Amino acid sequence: MNEAHQTMVSDIQMADSIDSIYEASLNAVQQWVEDRNYKGYDPGDGLTSWFRPLTFRNKFAERVLQQVIWKAPVNLRPIAGIKPMDSTKGRGFMAWGYLLRHKSTGRPEYLQKALDCLNWLDENSVDKYPGKSWANHFDFTTRSGTMPAGEPTIVWSGLIGQAFLEAFEQTSDERFLKISEGICKWILNLPRLKTESGDCLSYVAYGGSWIHNSNMLGAAMLARTWKHAPRDEYLDVSREAMRYSCTRQLPDGAWYYGEESKYHWIDNFHTAYNLDSLKRFLDSTGEETFREHLHSGYAYFKDTFFERSGRPRYYHNRTFPVDIQCAAQAIDTFAFFSKVDPEASMHGNKVAQWVIANMQDPTGYFHYRHYPILRARIPYFHWGQGTMFKALAHLLDCTTGGKDTATVCQVEHSVS
After folding, report:
1. Are 311 and 301 in contact, with CB atoms under 8 Å apart?
2. What is the pTM of this model?
3. How far apart are CA 383 and CA 381, in angstroms?
């Protein structure tokens, strides 16, 4: 551990207020990412291993290799020949986090770091489709087949797009709005599942994949862009996408991951994606049609996915694995809802303090997962570092503004 990291870890341990805890944690994870030049591992990067030729391109064998490397509690990548890689989604979350730090502090270096990340993203977008979109740098095999490296998804493109819109709203630089409109162009060209109760945007461009969080993330991107560039098609497609997912919300406020039976699970961070996206649609358009869906979904989220200590649960019916993505997205969502829910800041602070106390490594990065007995301390870039940096920046901006000092809630270093 170098001297800078030792200082930041000491700052976290000695901090006696919420804002100073978050500042120290943010500084530590930011330094960890920047020291590695924004490169890192990803949960799905197993097929970049030199063991892949031994699968003979058999899909089942590829899935086994991928899952073994992904789910192992220890990091097998160094011995499997997997090297840290660039991450478009990691850069997107870092850019968004830097912009939020700039918003709350006014410090120009945060804006410059954000612009550097956004310029890199602009230069590294996918060029095989009209418009702007982003993809993974590795192949990823599922039961449905292999998603090739360089094939964009609406999830990454929609989330990265929000960072460009944040940059436009802070700087008024039309270039960022133009890039956002390019993302909308790509989204509008995606396949759509048309039904009598709304249309679903596909996860990918090369076929139909109908998933609620990806559909709603695409709709949110269209709606927020429409606020600044009011094209009727943006609003119409966004509204129909939201109608598809809202009319399929379960009676208790939950959503399945997707409507096909193989997708009938309910988890923490995808539910949070849905809520953030729906709120962005309502905030951007001023429409009230889906307001009750937001209220019931948010109430379900608060009541279902967290233990009293602040530890996040992965699924609606069980806690493990305790995943850093669930923690990061929960913090981010509670920050986003803090202006409309008086309890949101309290919930966000409980999750944030629990995860800093229990999942942040002495070197600054956040661990991947806790299992009932073991802990996976693997240092992923976007899945943990980028998402936690953005989430804590958002929480600090929304709840303390980076200035107010408050008494710290007592959070024990425990697994409950």
Report:
1. no
2. 0.92
3. 6
> Which candidate, 168, 153, 304, 299, places its Cα nearest to that of 224?
168
Q: Which residues contact 391 (CB under 8 A, 6 or more apart)?
A: 327, 328, 329, 331, 332, 335, 352
Cis amide linkage into residue 321, ω under 30° from 0: yes
Give the integer Cα–Cα distance in Å for 45 and 85. Answer: 9
Euclidean distance between CA atoms 252 and 243, whole angstroms: 17
C-beta of residue 42 within 8 angstroms of C-beta of residue 87: yes
Report the distance separating Cα 186 and Cα 120, nearest Å: 19
Beta-bridged to residue 34, according to DSSP, are: none
Q: Which H or E run contains 200?
A: strand 198-201
Mapping DSSP onto H, E and C, the string for 353-379 reads: HHHHHHHECCCCCECCEECCCCEECCC
| Beta strand 192-195 pairing with 145-147 | unpaired
CB atoms within 10 A of CB 123: 7
Quick check: 85 pLDDT over 80? yes
How many Cα neighbours within 13 Å face the side chain of 164?
32
Please give the pLDDT value at position 405: 28
φ, ψ of residue 246 to 5 degrees: the values are -70, -35
Instruction: Please state, rounded to an integer, the average pLDDT across all residues of the chain.
Output: 92
DSSP 40-82: EB-TTGGGGSTTGGGGTT-HHHHHHHHHHHHH-SS--HHHHT-
The reported pLDDT for the residue numbered 407 is 30
pLDDT tens digits for range 131-157: 999 999 999 998 777 899 999 999 999
CA atoms of 46 and 48, how far apart (whole Å): 5
- Selection from 321, 313, 312, 319 nearest residue 353 by Cα: 312
**Looking up tokens 């990454």, which residue turns up?**
156
pLDDT tens digits, one per residue of 29-40: 999 999 999 999
| pLDDT tens figures, 343-393 | 999 999 999 999 999 999 999 999 999 999 999 999 999 999 999 999 999
pLDDT > 90? residue 13: no
Please state, as a whole number, how many other Cβ atoms lie within 10 Å of the Cβ of residue 373.
8
Cβ(268)–Cβ(326) below 8 Å: yes
Minimum mean pLDDT range among 7-16, 166-175, 211-220, 385-394 = 7-16
Residue 221 to residue 249: CA distance in whole angstroms: 20
